[in-house]
Amino acid sequence: MGQLPRIRDDEKSTAGAGGASIEMTGLPLPTVTPSAEPFPEDLAGLLSRLSFSWMNPIIRVGAKRPLQESDVWHLNGNDQTATLYPAFEQHWEHERAAPSPSLSRAVYKFIMRRFWLGGFFKVFNDAAQFTGPLFLNALIGWVANPDRKIPIGVLLAVAMFVFQMLGALGEAQFFQLVMRSGMNVKAVLVHSVFRKASRLSNSAKQKLSTGRINTMIASDTDAVNMFINNAHNLWSAPLRVVICVALLFTQLGWSGVIGAALFPLSIPFQKFILGRATRLTKASKAFSDTRVKVVGEVFSAISVVKCYDWLSSFQSAVEGLRSKELSKIRAGQYLYALNFFVIFSLPMMVSVVAFASHVLLFGNVLTVAQAFTSLALFSVMTFPLFLLPMVLNDWVNAKVAIGRLQEYLLAEELHDRPFSTPDPSLPSVEISNGEFAWENDDIVLHDIDLSVRSGELLAVIGRTGCGKSSLLSSILCEMDQKAGDVTVRGSIAYVPQQAWIFGGSLRENVTFGRHDGDYSRAVSLACLGPDIEQLSAGHETELGERGVNLSGGQAQRVSLARAIYADADVYLFDDPLSALDANVGQTVFDKCICSALQGRTRILVTNQLQYLRRTDRIVLLKDGRIDAIGTFDELDASSATFREFVASELGGDSSVDVVSQSVPSVSGSSSAAGTETPTAPPAPASKPTTAGKALVVDEERSTGLVKLHVVNYFVGAFGGYRIVALLCLVAVTTEALRAASSIWLKVWGDQKHVSAHVLYFLGVYAALSMGTGVFLYVWRLLLSYFGVRAAKRLHTAMFANLLRAPMSFFDQTPLGRIISRFSKDTSDIDGTFPGILSIFILSAIQLVAVCGVMSFFMPLLLVAIVPVAVLFWIVWRHFTMSSREIQRLDSISRSPVYTHFSQCLNGIASIRAYRGEEAAAKSNAERIDNNLRFLLVSFSSNRWLSLRLELLGGAVVFGCALFIVLPVRGVDAVMTGALAGLLLTYALQLTGLLNRNVRLGSMAENHFNSIERILYYTEVPQEAPLLIEGMLSRPSGRVLVDDNVT
Questions:
Q1: Residue-range domains of the chain with CATH
Q2: Among 211, 443, 471, 788, which one is most buried in terms of CB atoms within 10 A?
């Protein structure tokens, strides 16, 4: 119970009677063919790894043409799921054996080494951040010194640039290591969820819905991954704040400490925010689970929903769940807006308090060096303070996700099916004193004692609901075994009542991942020959998910062919003949069950009594108990219940002799019982043509920039361009007030008597700072409100449109691809997109303001800014052209993970019966790796970008510092400490702004990819309208006319 399934190489089925192993080598659902080239990072040299130059080839290709799947390297062995999972499993097994198991501890131990190596590089990055304010202070002091020496100034400028580059190198390695750790954790968690799904008990399944499982692999694993990426900030951010406070003390004395004391005052507020956020996150996740579950159920049974005209009912139900989910998300967004206001306003309020206490309380003179150095330190302090609540929010989300994953991984499991080597002298199937239940303690089968002899054909009969199918499930260990023993000697082949067909070719559905059986014999005995001749691509015809392009009888015969191909020792048939025409069913019974499989143990559940005399024995079930067992003649002579049952099934005529009737063979071929005339042609030796094969269409993929109509669609859902204009006005006002507060300090510092009119200058600075904070709050509040409204409209349009899509769309589209839109893509738009868009727009406006202010006060800086802008455009173009295509490939490669998961969940009983869990798990691991290779390239390209932008930003800082220290005509005459402080303060911000704008812009564009994917589903072709004009009234007459009907 609660055990995580192991990868066991020794868990193989013994060869069946025909000598063939039942073990599968892989489930083709569908084939994954990664690039032949390995990931080059591990083979790169030191300089290439430090500079991420090993990414240059793929960046260059992406700049020339849209990247294709084959352009992206596959994962190396150390990052592949098959390698990672055993290591993680070892830690989890150790935790599971502890009194209080902790999935968090298992995850931590799994990534500990790489995670803390990343922490080592972060130390360098954090230390470098403080060199900027310190060199700023030194340069302002150098400018103010009448006896300044130019070599000293140049040395300071060079040192500032060098330390900035060292910090950039440390940051790149830090992020690469922790993000790779997070990716590895995501891989093993998704794989663990899949493996656990194949072992869940029925009582556990009742508590853990399919929607919740989909949410876990789509959102919960992402939440854990996100926290791992940012977890180091839990110690780094407070440490940076403490160092900032210490440096402030060196600048302002106790005034700096008094100002910084405001920061602890925000802790109770943060605690309140996080407490509410935790509850809201749990509530929204619960509604999201239910919504995804209902959506999956609707589209998995869409034909029934359309047939009974339940569209409006389900639409109302899903939209009701969506409204409740979004109400929790909206409340959380409002809390984050308030938190956003506090985090960004706090440094400005701190600076006001610190400057006021320095001047008014302690009577000191505020120098230019002190003012701008303190502002630079406050700026350094802002980022960790901004990060800390985000990391705490990530921690809350990860804690909720880990809790859900841990509960799932500790859920009750089915018992392992006992397996023994087949022995003709012993019964093939034995159940002693068995009691079985589907869920909880509600016993379905009572006191089962059954012994099935080797080679016997045993029929199981009884009224509907008596437990016939449950008896087979108990043999397969699909039920909760409450008492007794079950023994199966030999391998099992299982034909369920509802045939399981997965998305693959007909051949793949029959062979089921094996290649050692007699395929021609299997399709012949299942009477599939004439059907195969009519299929568009014969044996290679692609069967849609759930066998949508097959009739019920054809699907059942494919399932039957699968069992024949398996060449097992024990065959379990759950009423397979009921879905077949009478003549086809007779042929299958004669040629296959009775003749071809003679000598194998066969248990046949049936409601067709004409076959009973042909069986060796009959088991009659009544109310979950074995009422009688014996041959037909024995039961007819000794069991009144049997006679009563036969009479009722035959319409009350108990005198009818239940014998096999002579029924013509299928398709007119001779079919005397026991003959094996092949009806299917031999499988061709060469690979058959695939013309006409495809049923499931490839997932749509756009290339190039996000299309204008996608942006227009989102703007329309958002509220229109008027709302966008209002938001832009608020954002511009915010940044104008922020820039004005910095310029005001320069004006103040340029006064001959800095101590004069202190209250006036301080009051204006405080007013500008507070105005910035207020407009920030209004900005985030408006964006949260309209963002949630847009998310609701997008979901409503997508769901309503899909409900009216024609059945051909669902035949060609795997369910997992649809679920991906309603889970991952919807989650991205609900949660992360508003925050990313908010910070991106503000950062873009701030970047323009910084460049504008610097150029206004020192026009000569355009000599540095213009070339940097050109290089920035080149880097941005190369990065975004590759990044957007990688994101699209990531989204497309994610759908097969969901599709494979969904298909395996639907056929889990068949997979377990054929002992295909390991083969299915291998297929799952391949799909995870295929998806995560795009993630690895994505964040590696971010590191490539970050280093180059740091270099460009550092060049501007270096150029600005050189213009300050060198005797340039027209500059040295106007250069003051206040101007130097303003220029260097803005120059130091430039690097972060360049990096932030490109990355956030790319992230925003990538999220527009989610909108693009949703928009595609709002534009799928529609069925005819529900109401056709001119046909609103029903016929009123009741006349039936027979007009020359022949």
A1: 427-650 (3.40.50.300), 719-858+1003-1021 (1.20.1560.10)
A2: 471
